[in-house]
Design goal:
single chain; Four Helix Bundle (Hemerythrin (Met), subunit A); 0% strand; mainly alpha
């Protein structure tokens, strides 16, 4: 919101606001960032096929690592090339949640990581998803994903490929892969839960603002 004009500030022609144009631009659907998010989502069935259809945990680990490594690309392109869209703000975190959920469930079924590792991630994702649905039903405004949450997801998306690689019997560095997996997992889990806790006051404000806007 623009600051009020000072009483000593001379009057002059008002410049047209750029907010309507920005809002119109965010209605776009066909953008490069959205295409990147869709391509990353399309890799999820391929990951499942490599792991269970071909029994190739090493190849599946490489693909999962590539998906995790490109997590920042769609957001970077959107911000730096003025392609931010309403769909992208929803698609990006939804794609992250789907890919992470499929990855951890697949790794649990493949027994590539301890069950409590998977349970801790699933518990956090389940709580966040339920909170988002409840807030939406109560009329809260949309909450943008924090950088802490994105960092946690990014680290977890690197941890699980190394868990998978450590389950491949034909590699010689499975112990090293498992150690690297823990190095990524521990800070990733801490950041993810920290982000979930910091969403609490944000969610309270979002609910209040959403209700005021609907009044």
């Amino acid at each position: 919101m623009a600051e009020p004009r000072s009483a000593t500030e001379p009057d002059g022609p008002q410049r047209p606001s750029s907010e309507p144009a920005a809002a119109a631009g965010e209605d776009r659907v066909l953008t490069v960032p959205n295409l990147i998010s869709l391509v990353r989502l399309a890799c999820v069935p391929l990951f499942v096929w490599l792991l269970f259809g071909r029994d190739e945990p090493y190849a599946a680990a490489w693909l999962l690592g590539a998906i995790g490594a490109t997590d920042w690309v769609d957001g970077y392109v959107a911000r730096h090339f003025n392609q931010v869209s309403t769909l992208g703000k929803v698609l990006d975190p939804v794609a992250d949640r789907i890919m992470l959920a499929v990855a951890i469930v697949s790794i649990l079924l493949y027994e590539a990581a301890p069950w409590w590792v998977v349970a801790s991630v699933l518990a956090r994702e389940g709580l966040v998803s339920i909170a988002v649905l409840v807030l939406g039903a109560l009329g809260a405004r949309r909450i943008d994903v924090s950088w802490v949450g994105k960092a946690g997801t990014f680290l977890l998306m690197w941890a699980f490929p190394f868990f998978l690689a450590s389950a491949a019997e034909y590699i010689s560095w499975e112990d090293t892969a498992r150690t690297i997996a823990w190095v990524f997992f521990v800070p990733g889990m801490v950041l993810s839960w920290w982000a979930a806790l910091t969403y609490l006051p944000v969610a309270k404000r979002a609910l209040a603002e959403g209700r005021r806007g609907a009044a």
